[in-house]
Amino acid sequence: MITKEMIKEKVADLEKEYVDFMVDHFSEWDLWAQASQKMYDGEKVTEDEIPEPFLLEFKLFLVILEMEEKGKFDWGNPQLREIFGQLAQSPLYKLSAETITKISLRLADCAGVKTLVEIGAGRGNLTAIMLQQIAESKLPLQLIITDVDPIVLESIDKLKSNYPQITIETLLWDIKEPPPQELLEKVQAPCLAYERASIMYANIPAIENIARIADMVVFGDMFNYTGELYAYDEIPKKIGVQPLFYSEIKPLLEKCFREHFMFDLRAQEELKYPNTTMLIATK
Ligand SMILES: C[S@@+](CC[C@H](N)C(=O)[O-])C[C@H]1O[C@@H](n2cnc3c(N)ncnc32)[C@H](O)[C@@H]1O
Prior knowledge:
Layout: H1 4-10, H2 12-25, H3 29-40, H4 55-70, H5 78-88, H6 91-111, E1 115-119, H7 125-137, E2 142-147, H8 151-160, E3 167-172, H9 181-186, E4 191-196, H10 199-202, H11 206-211, E5 216-220, E6 223-224, H12 231-234, E7 244-245, H13 246-256, E8 259-262, H14 265-271, E9 275-276, E10 279-282
Helix pairs in contact: 2-6, 2-14, 4-5, 6-7
The structure holds S-adenosylmethionine (SAM).
S-adenosylmethionine (SAM) binds next to helix 7 and helix 10.
C-alpha cells in the first residue's frame, strides 16, 4: 500500500524545486490582488503597476473585460488566443507541466500503473511534455488523452506521430459526466489520471467522475485553500472559471480516495497566498 509519506519522499526534490519557484513567483501576490480589484472596479490600471510575474494575467484580464464591455465573449479572439499561447510557454506553466508529469510517472512506476489518463488535454501543451517524459522513462504505459472539446482529437493527432513507440488513444470525455463506456473498456488498472486547469471549468463534482476510473490522481488546478477570494478570482468567472474551495473538495476527496495532500502547501504557508496548485490523491 502506497502511503502519503511514501509519495512525499518520492517527490521531495520536485516539491523543493516547484515550491521554491512558487514562493518567488507569487511573492507580490497582494499587489496583484489590489491591481486586479482596481480593474474589476473599472479603474484604469497601467502595466507598471503590475508585478512582472502577473503581466500575462493582466493582459488576459484586459481582453476579458474589454470583450465583456462590448457584450460578446469570443474564444476565437486573436488577442485572447495569443495570450493563452504565451501563458502556455511561460516559466510557471512549463515548470508546472514538468512537475505534474514527473510526479505522475514516479507514482506510476512505484504503483505499477498500466494506464495513464489525461483529463482536459485541450491543445496538448501538457501532453507534449508527458509524451517526451514517457519516452525517456521507457515505462510500459498506455496513454489515453481526453477532453470535452473535439480540438483534442486534432491537437493530439499532430503529436502522436512523433511517438510511435507509445500506445496513445484519444477520446472525448465531458468530466461533468461519468466516464463513457469506451473509456472504461480501454482503461487497464491500476490507472493514474492527471490534469491541469480543467476542474476549474468543469467544477467540483467532476472529481467523483475521475475517481471512477483512477486509482491515483495528480490534480494541477487552482485550489482555494483559505476560502479568501480576491478580484483576480472574480474576473476569470466571466470565462467560466470557478474557484475550487478546498473546504468543498475535501469531503469528496475523503469519500473517493484513501489519502490526499496538497503538494505545494509550503508555498501557501510561506506566502499566505490563498491558493495552492497541485493535489495528489490515492486510493
Ligand atoms: C485551460 S485549458 C487546459 C489545457 C491543458 N490541460 C493544459 O494544461 O495545457 C482547459 C481545458 O479543459 C477542458 N475542459 C473544460 N471543461 C471540461 C469538461 N467538462 N470535461 C473535460 N474537459 C473540459 C477544455 O476543453 C480545455 O481544453
